Amino acid sequence: MQDRGNWSSKFGFIMAAAGSAIGLGNIWKFPYVAGKNGGGSFLLIYLAIVATIGFSILMAELVIGRATQRNPVGALKRLQSGKWWPLIGYAGIVTAFVILSYYVVVAGWTLAYIGKSATGLLATTDGDALGGMFTAFITDPLEPIVYAGLFTALTVWVVVGGVNQGLERSCRYLMPALFILVIILCIRSLTLEGAGAGWDFFTRPKWEYVTFQTVIEAMGQAFFSLSLGMGTMMTYGSYISRDSDVVESGFSVITLDTLIAVLAGVMILPAVFAFGMDPGQGPGLTFITLPRVFAQMTGGIVFGPLFFILLAIAALTSSVSLLEVVTAYFVDELGWTRRNCTIAAGVVAFVLCIPSSLSLGIWSDHTLFGLGFLDIMDFLATNLMLPIGGMAIALFAGWVVPKQMVEEFCAGNPKLGGLAKVWLFFIRFVSPIAILIVLLNGLPFLGPYLPWN
Ligand code: TRP
Fold this sequence. Notes:
Bound molecules: tryptophan
Number of strands: 0
Shape: globular
CATH class: Mainly Alpha
Order of helices and strands: HHHHHHHHHHHHHHHHHHH
Radius of gyration: 21 Å
Distance between the termini: 55 Å
Largest sheet: none
Number of helices: 19
Strand content: under 5%
Helix content: over 70%
């Protein structure tokens, strides 16, 4: 049996788990998804989902992980002998590859943009030119794939380093640095002339825009941003020693992740309005708007590359957590060496990222329901696999092994008994039912016919 490794301290765990949670989902995706869904009301729905469904499922994953000290497949086998529940763990491995297939593509863009901003290529306030450059880059058949490959190699390198020397060490310093830079950029964005309209857009609820689709997207976004529903947090929980608390750490992780998502909105949306751009423009928002902010700020030539470096780092501390789920399974259950399985999984992820990247350019006319490969992978993972995985985890913890879960939740701190009861109620009833309703509504052949629609 190989030594699985442990976080060296509570702080180390919180930074690693926050590193997993905080990533492209917060900084690149959240502002444009919020922009597309009308701003303020989306924000409120998102916060409500994070505080209820998000928190309860995060705790379920952490508790299961810490209790069993195993990868998701092994954890579910250990807690229950039935043969179906470990399927959650296998599904998680598949989901990890689905997400990696496009995550490394976008992360590769951030690497490319470090160089582009450092060499002054982006130093223009002409929005159309910046938009054109972005489109030309992501539709190129080769360049983005090279960067995605580079990023995948970095991911593999960190995961091969192991729990302490790789995952934890990469997060301890980089996460605090990211935090400080985000705050500086928020201040700059809010002090641009005309920023008020963006602030208003981001914070004022506009309920007339809200449909069930908004709720589905907010829920998917919450799962994605918190790294829930595929065993990532279970895996990270399994490296917490049995005598160290999970509840407080879980709170910290949720708070940090949500804070960064909200700050990313504050950093980007006011600037979008200040420059008279369209907040619903989608994936290009960060890559087009922010260079324009940098071009207008003193020291932009420093802050620009710095921002893309930190975005790449945020992406890296997340992509390693996706790969770690796969690695933990092969190491724990099949006895492979960490090095071999991580490299093998990295190669698979790289191969899968090729159609993702090409689907934005030369393969853009190969679509299914109007979506290209990258969009399909994102849709499948975010709106289906993660919520379904999360529901299964909640049902497992709440109905199959509830007594053990409650005991483990309070381990070492009897004062948590009251909170444990509330938590149990959420994973038994509130979260699974809420997820089910949202998912059923999302089915095109069912949703429109439900009595409340
Ligand atoms: N949470 C990360 C982000 O916001 C992405 C991520 C890492 C993830 N691990 C995950 C998403 C597991 C879902 C499941 O960018």
